[in-house]
Amino acid sequence: MPFDRRPSKAVSPPAPVPKLSKNVEVECSGCPIRHRAVCARCDADELARLEEIKYYRTYEAGQPIAWAGDEMGFVASVVRGVATISQTMADGRKQMVGLLLPSDFLGRPGRASTPYDVTAVSDVTLCCFRRRPFEGLMAATPHVAERLLDMSLDELDAAREWMLVLGRKTAREKIASLLTIVARREATVGLGAMTGRINIDLPLTREAMADYLGLTLETVSRQISALKAEGVLELGPQRRISVPDIRRLMAETGDDMDGGLIA
Amino acid sequence: MPFDRRPSKAVSPPAPVPKLSKNVEVECSGCPIRHRAVCARCDADELARLEEIKYYRTYEAGQPIAWAGDEMGFVASVVRGVATISQTMADGRKQMVGLLLPSDFLGRPGRASTPYDVTAVSDVTLCCFRRRPFEGLMAATPHVAERLLDMSLDELDAAREWMLVLGRKTAREKIASLLTIVARREATVGLGAMTGRINIDLPLTREAMADYLGLTLETVSRQISALKAEGVLELGPQRRISVPDIRRLMAETGDDMDGGLIA
DNA sequence: CGATTCCTTGAGACAGCTCAATTTCGGTGG
DNA sequence: CCACCGAAATTGAGCTGTCTCAAGGAATCG
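Above: the input entities. Below: the structure tokens describing the complete assembly.
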């Protein structure tokens, strides 16, 4: 059953009716990404106005969220799940250019159509805001725009870090970098420090990793096998990866990891 | 001989006296990047406040503007010249992650130190704003922050386009992509349309291009020689490149260039 | 003009790609 | 619960685009 929106209020017909899913989380206050998403700095008043224009939408693993060139009537925060942002060339070569994890922002205010394919990798829940009202809200209240600027600059840094990975690192270093980055991100968000054993839950197929790293899936597989053979990582079922000693993995990234957050 | 500036106007003392260079351009109204830089949307009032905290600084070709890890007391707009943003790995591998052309913004409000090396490639003039006052101004007036968000999102798009280049394109396609991007940018800014013969003034050495493209300088040289041999481009003195037919070059980028701005 | 820096070109090596064959995994229905 | 199926992953063998190492040549600048 789709979440039901406030049942009162004779539904204003222009609103696009999303046809999805059972979850009915409406309270921002209880939202798992409340303090990390684009709404992080909103005060009660701003939150209330966001709440008015927000709705949830879910996608199953593997489903497209948008194709390049699509009109996107909304922008959104990822509440849970993982999605990828990718570009495809005419002959099929594909490159992932972003990974959307919970609290990440999707879409660009002021632009109607995405230039990227966006795909749900695991089951994904989005907290969507219709674009127009969101843009109005951005103009009216400073905190959303401020936060979005900060998040965008973080993304730009991430993209630049990734450019180094793509342009200059070996296959092995690329794999280690991907896993380290995801591990770091998971450590930051939730539980666990960047030390000792770490479990990485990265629901990407070998092919998806390859598209991320600018490699072929065979090369990804070979490198992972090699790292496993050397004991740097262990493979569980369900694409689960366990890293006995995160520092050994980080040592394989090629980065100067002195300036690390190592205990 | 460098441009000489209006010699008049007793300098207002509070401005930090840049110890550089003879040029003293003070009027925003006559600024060549007035309508494209971070100040583009400022009204007269906001501009006046910017004018109070701004000062010019110049760097000669080849000089470093900042090293990774440096404290940066200012943020800045590039007024003229070209600078590169790059990252270097411990073992010397280097990757450019950004190209700063006139009107581009340098630095991140809210952060004291750069994570990147920034280098002047040609003689560069920056319009600098001391960081603290600039941050204050951003909080106080909406137009600067708005414009900066837009510019950052454009940069993010550019970075993502670059990720495709780095991850999935062949050496030849990389060269063609770099030249096309610069040509497009030059066409947008100034003179010339994206059609017919185009002159590209890209003051990058082969090595710098290689660092940009994730290649070696030898491969860059070979590919450029090949394109020249095929008549796709002509090499002048001073690193000047002339493209007889821009569409032939664009056809080599691997992009689907249907959606082009081709006449 | 020398000296330096940048560019070009060649020849051989190698990392990662391509093509191809199994094997393992995860689900599904009998 | 097991047999089966398709998708994903692994592994092998040979190929190739780019890198590495090396030697000249062309600019540019005191």
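Note for the figure: Chain B has a mean pLDDT of 86.
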